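Workshop exercise sheet. Pairs work together: one partner reads the sequence aloud, the other fills in the structure field after running the prediction. Swap roles for the next sheet.
Pair: D.N. / O.F.
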Amino acid sequence: MLIGKSAKPRAFKNINIKLLPVHYRSSKSAWMNQQLFKDWFHSEFVPAVKKHPKSQKLPMKAVLVLDNATSHPSEEVRPCSCHQT
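Structure field:
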């Protein structure tokens, strides 16, 4: 994910941001925050983790390692439909 200050950066003036090979989001500080993280986790990470093992005929296993940054909500992202151990 790429985070910038502007919702519509001038550098991407004639470019459809949704077609970029990276997910662009904006925040006032251009820093990760809990809301951006939760949005990314539920809309990008979880679907990708579900899709990849199915496409490769692998068991559903994934690990996401996070540090203790304040932008990483600890309990709020755990309850998902993914299997946990």
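Discussion prompt: The mean pLDDT is 85. What would you look at next?
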